[in-house]
């Protein structure tokens, strides 16, 4: 339990680093703008496309009464919360791919500050960029594969839906930990299997950190502000807790 709470606390510790090193704020601007545009498009475009269907289901097309408006409000709220979950999944898939190289700079900056060593690349800028993109794609394949498997398991009678909900929650925590602890590991060009073993080597700590990320990053638009904080937290935890 102690390690779970310790993992949960790392993002809160990381906030202080943005005051200590204002350059982190500058490094976060571009990924923030990309994430803002990406998440806004996913959420509001989906809601825009579904609005006519909600109006039709609520019966607002022909002579609506008060009950129709109540039903419309109820359906809108339900659909909005469903879209938050769906948008979070889609956002997770694409955000890392588009902002990975920028998050890499944040992580590299923090690594240099906490280790007091200049991080010199062995490969060069373009090779580093390819390694970052390759790392994100490997995680995406893992994420999409597990989501698809759990989707079909959910159709199993009796236990399918219960198992899927529990497994999806645990996987979300695990993947969130992997996602933000990955940046220092990606710089060393470790394989995905090595990264997974590293995360699982400290299960309680990784779960606590992943739980914190999963809960906060599902909140609309707050998740955009918090992403750089979790990048810093993941890098801090990787070195301070000897994941390497």
Distance between the termini: 23 Å
Q: Which residues form runs of ≥5 with pLDDT under 50? A: none
* Gyration radius from CA atoms, angstroms: 20 Å
| Beta-strand share of residues | under 5%
Number of folding domains? Answer: 1
Average pLDDT, all residues: 83
Alpha-beta content class: mainly alpha
Q: Quickly count the helices.
A: 8
Describe the oligomeric state of these chains in a short phrase. single chain
Largest sheet: none
Helical content stands at over 70%
Number of DSSP strand runs: 0
> H/E series, N to C?
HHHHHHHH
Morphology: globular
Describe this structure in words.
With 244 residues, this protein is mainly alpha-helical. The chain has one domain. It has helices at 2-20, 23-58, 66-115, 125-153, 160-187, 192-200, 203-217, 222-240. The radius of gyration is 20 Å and the shape is globular. The mean pLDDT is 83.
Annotation keywords:
244 residues; mainly alpha; 8 helices; 84% helix; globular
């Amino acid at each position: 339990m102690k390690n779970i709470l310790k993992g949960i606390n790392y993002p809160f510790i990381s906030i202080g680093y943005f005051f200590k090193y204002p350059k982190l704020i500058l490094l976060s601007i571009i990924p923030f703008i990309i994430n803002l545009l990406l998440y806004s498009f996913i959420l509001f475009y989906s809601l825009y496309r579904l609005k006519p269907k909600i109006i039709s289901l609520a019966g607002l097309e022909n002579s609506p009464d008060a009950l129709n408006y109540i039903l419309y409000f109820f359906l809108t709220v339900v659909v909005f919360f469903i879209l938050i979950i769906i948008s979070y999944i889609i956002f997770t898939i694409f955000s890392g791919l588009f902002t990975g190289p920028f998050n890499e700079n944040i992580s590299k900056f923090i690594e240099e500050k906490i280790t007091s060593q200049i991080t010199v690349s062995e490969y060069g800028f373009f090779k580093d960029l390819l390694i970052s993109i390759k790392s994100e794609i490997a995680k995406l394949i893992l994420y999409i594969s597990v989501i698809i498997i759990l989707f079909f398991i959910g159709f199993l009678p009796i236990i399918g839906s219960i198992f899927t909900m529990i497994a999806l929650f645990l996987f979300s925590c695990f993947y969130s930990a992997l996602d933000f602890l990955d940046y220092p590991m990606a710089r060393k060009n470790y394989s995905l299997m090595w990264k997974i073993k590293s995360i699982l080597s400290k299960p309680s700590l990784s779960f606590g950190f992943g739980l914190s990320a999963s809960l906060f990053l599902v909140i609309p638009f707050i998740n955009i502000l918090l992403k750089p904080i979790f990048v810093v937290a993941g890098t801090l935890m990787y070195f301070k807790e000897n994941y390497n």
